[in-house]
Input
Amino acid sequence: MALAAVIVVSGCGDADEPDGSATSTATTSVTETSTESPTTEMPEPTETSALPPLPDEATENTPEGAEAFIRYYFDVVNRLHRDPAVGVLADLADADCQSCANAEDTISYLVTNDAALDADLIEVQSMSRLGGGAPDVTRFTAEWVYLENQAVASDGQVVDTIPRQEFSGILAAKWTGDSWVFYDAASDDT
Output
């Protein structure tokens, strides 16, 4: 079974999408490897594999705070793909966030298959504030990259590969009254 890597590029399913024009869904292509895969050593979990600390700026109800939170969210997503744990994203995501649900599904796949990615998956390259949108939602036009990656089982076998893919679209965060949550992502790319 191939890795269900539909992590963060599908838009919301309702009228409160991060961007009304960016409603397409993109998924990563995954190539399943043969049974004679090369062996790659997985790092042992350590105290440093804990979640990254929330930056102070990401607690502020400002556009800068929203951007800092979105970047933090992707740091957490990257960490959870390298050291998978199910259920962590729920506290950082809007309840209707489809891309967050996709990321959680991928993390669950990794846990079920006793595997992890061998490096960060997502790199946010640029973000620029975009006006409009739903109340309390701060949107950004953005460019991000899925980095070439491998899913490695605990026995060191490469079980899946993810090719490099570049995306552009909308990333959004929502202020909940006392903190930010990741609202969703919508890619212009199909």
Summary: The domain at 31-43+58-187 is CATH 3.10.450 (Nuclear Transport Factor 2; Chain: A,). The mean pLDDT is 82.
